[in-house]
Amino acid sequence: MKDSSKGRLRTYKGPLSAKVTLLASVNPKIGKSRERFALYKQGMTVAEYYWRCECARHEAKRYKSDIEWDLERRFIKLD
């Protein structure tokens, strides 16, 4: 997601140990972000999501902003 005041993607700055809970019953995204969303697994940590994205060779600035985007749209929650 872009930070309107700076024109940059916002990245998640919370703990990497936070656990992902999927709230979307189906993948709500399209394009490359759809591929990254498919890498989420119920109960995984943010660090594990980042690792899976790295293994799939996704661009770091994109998948690090996915967490914020998905939280704001209630596609996921973190515990």
Describe this structure in words.
- By secondary structure, the chain is α+β, with helices and mostly antiparallel strands.
- It has one domain.
- Helices cover 38% and strands 13% of the residues.
- The protein contains 3 helices and 4 strands; from the N terminus they run E-E-E-H-H-H-E.
- The protein has helices at residues 31-37, 46-55, 60-72, and strands at 2-3, 8-9, 20-22, 76-78.
- The chain has a two-stranded antiparallel sheet with strand order 1-2. Strands 3-4 form a two-stranded antiparallel ribbon.
- A hairpin with a 4-residue loop joins strand 1 (2-3) and strand 2.
- Helix 2 (46-55) packs across helix 3 (60-72).
- The chain is globular.
- It starts with a strand and ends with a strand.
- 16% of the residues are buried.
- The mean pLDDT is 91.
SSE diagram, text form:
Blueprint: E1 2-3, E2 8-9, E3 20-22, H1 31-37, H2 46-55, H3 60-72, E4 76-78
Helix pairs in contact: 2-3
Quick recap:
With 79 residues, the protein is α+β, with helices and mostly antiparallel strands. The chain contains three helices and four strands; from the N terminus they run E-E-E-H-H-H-E.
Provide tags for this entry:
79 residues, two-stranded antiparallel sheet, 38% helix, alpha+beta, globular, 3 helices, two-stranded antiparallel ribbon
